[in-house]
Write a structure and sequence with these properties.
The complex is a heterodimer of chains A (about 130) and B (about 140). By secondary structure, chain A is mainly β. Helix content of chain A is about 5%, strand content about 35%. In chain A, strands 1, 2, 3, 4, 7, 8, 9 and 10 form an 8-stranded antiparallel sheet that branches. Classes of the chains: A mainly beta (about 130), B mainly alpha (about 140). Chains A and B meet through β1, β4, α1 and β9 of A and β1 of B. β1 of chain A pairs parallel with β1 of chain B.
Chain lengths: ~130, ~140
């Protein structure tokens, strides 16, 4: 189903759960026209299910795929993705933050909460360039 | 140049969200909420006033939900994979305790609330066995 999305095009990253690929303070370009979950490894901006805040994470599994969760397997619904942080607890702690929050906390994220795909970093200039798929 | 930077600067912040790094975890937080459920059920047995019963049910449901929340925070944030060596049944323990908290939310049987307290005590033992008391609390001032 094609949908029009009015997400922000330019965003600034706060907090550290996407280190080392994406750092606090990075300026990113977001494509808000995506109508379905991008492929695995893409970085997405979405509304966090438990806080409704704009958040950024990487797609670990897409609709219909299975993910390991609490020593079991979880099959995602046709409109859901499993979004994870790049940083582990130690990396986030070294940057002065607590444990990263992702789907292991709030579960699968439905498509209606997707805002767009982050695809390019335009600041700081020394890290200018396309975001790599994980 | 600074005007260009101002023009380029994003107006929207997205969070690569992390928890606050307070690092304070203690099963006591869940136990206090579960004790509230226990006491409320006890009081409900001794008072048949419909207004009291309505309030008691509302409060019990709220406290049971808080119990579940505090257990989830312990499970997700305090316990780490390396703790499974010392507590091999860790996941089962939390799975059962959070299920029991849901049961207490709907139940008026005091035995259910007592069982939840026992399960939290078991989690407390796991927290102590993994050094939680030393690692995650701020020591009180010596008397």
């Amino acid at each position: 189903m094609a949908r029009t999305r009015g997400g922000p095009w330019r965003v600034k990253v706060a907090e550290a759960s996407m280190l080392p690929a994406i750092a606090p303070g990075d300026w990113l370009l977001v494509d808000p026209t995506v109508a379905r979950w991008p492929r695995r490894g893409s970085v997405v901006v979405f509304r966090e299910p438990d806080t409704d805040e704009l958040a950024i994470k990487r797609i670990a599994a897409g609709p219909g795929e299975e993910v390991r969760f609490r020593e079991g397997l979880l099959r995602l619904a046709d409109d859901e993705a499993w979004l994870t942080a790049d940083a582990d607890v130690e990396t986030a702690a070294a940057a002065g933050f607590g444990a990263p929050r992702d789907s292991t906390r709030y579960g699968p994220v439905p498509l209606e909460l997707l805002v767009g795909r982050a695809w390019f970093r335009y600041g700081p200039l020394r890290r200018f360039g396309r975001l790599m798929s994980g | 140049m600074s005007r260009l930077t101002d023009w380029l600067a994003p107006r929207t912040v997205v969070k690569a969200h992390c928890d606050l790094p307070c690092g304070i975890y203690d099963p006591e937080q869940a136990r206090i909420e579960a004790e509230s459920c226990y006491k409320i059920i006890e009081k409900m047995g001794a008072n048949s006033d419909p207004a009291f019963t309505t309030r008691a049910i509302l409060i019990k449901e709220e406290r049971a939900e808080l119990t579940k929340h505090h257990l989830d925070v312990l499970w997700h944030d305090y316990f780490k994979p390396e703790h499974l060596d010392k507590v091999p049944n860790l996941h089962e323990m939390f799975w059962n305790a959070t299920k029991q908290a849901s049961k207490v939310k709907a139940s008026t049987d005091i035995a259910d609330a007592k069982k939840l307290l026992d399960m939290i005590d078991e989690i407390d033992e796991a927290w102590i066995a993994t050094g939680g008391a030393e690692k995650t609390r701020v020591a009180k001032q010596p008397a």
